[in-house]
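Quick start: what a row looks like.
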Amino acid sequence: MYSQPERLAHDTAGPLEPVGPSPIVRLVMRPMTKVLNPLIVKLAGRPHFRMAAQIQHVGRRSGRTYTTPVSARRTDDMVVIALTFGNQSDWSRNVRSAGRASIRIEGEGYDVTQPHIMSREEARPLVRAAFSLVERTGFRLLGIKQVMALRLVTATHLPGVTAAPNASSR
């Protein structure tokens, strides 16, 4: 999954430098995910389960739909996802390749588009708005270096569609 570093197109800013998981994530969390993911994916995205959201994405090679648990929060018209396993995880690459996904956060479903990888420094205002101090501290302890920001799909963000005046974007 991470063995071949590849340079992926990143928005219009040029190639994306591959960033894998931190050593602590590689040593501690990756082995646990094989056991815990089936349980977490069933709970993720449900109301009152802030620990994880569910992102649905389409495989870039297989065309299959996958559901993956992620640490995500909504802030205004954005969804921010901590890249615990780096920007080379399959779900991250799938979402960037497709340019869109669906996500379920605390019981609410959203379509998202325009994936954008941001460094921890670049994303600081978004992360502060979306995640609690405890969550942000956990990200630092885990060595998370990047987040993915996605824009909520609303009538104003769809090509060729104009939103009605006073239309709600939620």
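That is the whole record. The mean pLDDT is 84. The domain at 18-153 is CATH 2.30.110.10 (Pnp Oxidase; Chain A).
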